[in-house]
Design a protein that fits this description.
membrane; DUF6010; 6 helices; about 70% helix; Integral membrane protein; mainly alpha; transmembrane helix; about 140 residues; transmembrane
Length: about 140
């Protein structure tokens, strides 16, 4: 169950983003990932926290024009989550495994961003359009 909840949170994040008009969706997500970059600012790694925040800010800035950069930034945050989990400095001090949960959730969001940050209805239409012409037969033969 511990893995399922963070995955569902990541999927919910992508689904809720469907409510944001496409023209605003990427800038909003660039701001969100920039904020995530500062989540560990006093997390125990000293000057490395500042350097990481600077790197995340750069990736988020590039994300204003590119979904790929936003996806990369979420993967950077995943790595930082894992380091903090191993170090014992969780993102939420009152929840010991919160950094691990974040490390499970963030790649789900990253995959959605790397796929272009499209709305769930757009993704669904794309998927059904791609699979509409395929026929499956018993035994797997086409």
């Amino acid at each position: 169950m511990f893995v399922i909840a963070p995955v569902l949170i990541g999927l919910a994040y992508a689904a809720l983003n469907s409510l944001i008009p496409a023209v605003h969706r990427r800038p909003v997500n660039a701001v969100m990932v920039a904020g995530a970059g500062a989540a560990y600012l006093s997390g125990g790694f000293g000057v490395w926290e500042l350097l990481f925040t600077a790197a995340m800010t750069y990736a988020a800035f590039r994300g204003l024009r590119s979904w790929r950069w936003i996806g990369v930034a979420w993967l950077m945050h995943t790595a930082w989550d894992l380091l903090h989990h191993r170090y014992g400095g969780p993102i939420l001090p009152f929840a010991a495994d919160s950094s691990l949960g974040c490390a499970i959730c963030d790649p789900v969001i990253a995959v959605w961003c790397l796929a272009g940050g499209r709305s769930v209805p757009d993704l669904w239409r794309s998927w059904t359009h791609r699979t509409a012409g395929r026929r499956t037969y018993p035994g797997g033969a086409a």
